[in-house]
Amino acid sequence: MECLMQFLLLIFIASLLICITATPNPIPKPYVIYMGNSEPNRIQIHSQISESSHLELLSSIVPRRESERIELIHHYSHAFSGFSAMLTESEASALSGHNGVVSVFPDPILQLHTTRSWDFLESDLGMKHSGTPTYQQHLSSDIIIGVIDTGIWPESPSFRDEGIGQIPSRWKGVCMEGHGFKKSNCNRKLIGARYYNNQFTSSGKQTLTKEVRSSPRDSVGHGTHTASTAAGAHVKNASYYGLAQGIARGGSPSARIAAYKACSEGGCSGATLLKAIDDAIKDGVDIISISIGLSSIFQPDFLEDPIAIGAFHAEQMGVMVVCSAGNDGPDPYTVVNTAPWIFTVAASNIDRNFLSAIVLGNGKTFQGTSINFSNLTRSKMYPLVFGEKVAAKFAPASEARNCYPGSLDYNKIAGHIVVCVNEDPTISRKIKKMVLKDARAIGIILIGEDNKDVPFDADVFPFSQVGNLEGHQILEYINSTKNSSATILPTKEVNGYRPSPIVASFSSRGPSGLAENILKPDVMAPGTGILAAMIPPSDEPGSVPIGKKPSLFAIKSGTSMACPHVTGAAAFIKSIHGRWSPSMIKSALMTTATTYNNLRKPVTNTTNYFANPHETGVGEINPLRALNPGLVFETVAEDYIRFLCYYGYSKKNIRSMSKANTNCPRNSSEDLISNINYPSISIKTLNRQQKAKVITRTVTNVGPLNATYIATVHSPEGLVVKVTPNKLVFSEGVQRISYKVSFYGKEAHGGYNFGSLTWLDGRHYVHTVFAVNVE
User: Fold this and answer.
1) One of 74, 78, 113, 222 is an active-site residue; which one?
2) Is the predicted pLDDT of residue 118 greater than 60, yes or no?
3) For this structure, is 222 an active site residue?
4) How many Å separate Cα 119 from the centre of its chain?
5) Which residue, 148, 209, 422, 769, shows the most beta carbons closer than 10 Å to its own?
């Protein structure tokens, strides 16, 4: 009987837990309610009506006793319609079924994806075209770049406005005053600045102090760095405490900047990002730069991704959106911001590296990567120990060798240089440095291949990272003597570094987990060791080298740094081809991209293998060549509507998004996504047992009126690729021509096959990359 009672009690507890789990969470949290397109012809009136109607809609869902929640956190009314508000799960569910609502989703937190680079790009990797205009020669531009990020530090010399004309009359934005920020901080270069106080986390709590929230001023540095990379003015003798010295400039130094502070160091509210995109379009920007993204692990679909939603409507209104691909590489399926209407950027290195020599007591020297301004010299050696050998009491050896917090015996490492391994990605280089600095160690030698290509900035603390091969020799030396010693020398800059570009180890890889029939990322751009403007460093001891003034520049790495390179390049092209649409500029940068390095060999990754398009996209941008692409692929609104149809969205939602009487093709399927007019080709599945798959593309001639292009195909062994017709003849009356590409994989290798189709007319080189998965 007692056993029976215990059994029944267990059943009761289990059922109670099921009920608790199944019950919607009654605690309100911020949600985004997306309601599709706005009506641009009646913006002013529509804005007032929609705000009223949105409040009315909210009041129909929220109980009267909680009337304080009947408030819009953000209201979207220009490029698209909707709002964000505090809702419970059940209220959100009720709203999602309401007529006119496209999607309802919890406000997500998105993460920040954090000089010589422009010279490197402009040089065409050492093969500069004579007679081609350079960035410096083009001095006047009314292109407006909206940078959605952590704000801006207006005093930076990168945002001076000498030589720049009056603010374009079409600019409708504002320069918001706030804590430590006045209207006079804006000028003819920095023409606008906005901030958003309603920055919430998923728990509903605001993430910033009041002083930091209530100002466009950048307290992180990320936004200042990205803005100056895209459009910073020329600054002579820029450097980071003597490193990377030269002229700092953005890709379009005469373009205007509008800063939208939607993020903090902890991340960015999706609802706030949407508001910033809506504002930027209303203000009159030409290009929006977003070095931010959702996690690659839990990617929502496109109608629950705030960047994808905002970018869709930006594209509809002629505004290009450029985004970073993410920093979750080198694993596949990690790329984010993959909607076809987003220009997605991977990261590469440039021909500059920062090396710090490690000198052992036996005279051997190893060149490690780092940025450190230590005062150590060759004349004095320090005791050298391996973290595993100086573990704290009861600490596992595996933790000590990785220099976990609390794993080392401080008495045994004070005054020593400590060797740590980099086996656990959860313990960052910054944490290891803090652990050893706190223990009064002299310095750190880090062994590991992960992020070896990305120089870690250790300030004045002696730091250097070597690969596994060099690390093995250092550990052998420690084991060979009782009195091992070493020193770590301050960083030296190495220019002309080869090979470059290579794909950065951290750069997120394709294919896209959401839409594998679109090749992502799109392109690659410099994102490793980039010098750009920065907020002045803190007064924390060790952050500024002794005897130096605080630097107004910093060296940062990430796809965050690659993204504004493409933004700046796009602004440069638009300043010369003002009537080109976003997709034409995007196509020009894609079909003219470089696929070789400065050794004149195919681009590689950090493991020295040839890189594939899931790592590089179509290749490294070449802005000068993109000025004259010959042919472009125009991806028009109809293509994006068909993408939504093929992806499987309902006709009702698509009509709400486009405000057009859209009818999807009868036989819509995901496979047909490969057919939208994109500048690259991706096929998720090519069945080797079936007949050839045929893809259609249409090109527009933007070169000489009379031109003849011949197709050349480079295909992997076994994959049969045919182009029909293989000759395109353009004349005064023929500007657009369609062609078909067939793929037959009966003899092809299984898995992804990569190749290219190039159209040549003797002057132009129109390169289209394809990725075909054979099963």
Assistant:
1) 222
2) no
3) yes
4) 21
5) 148
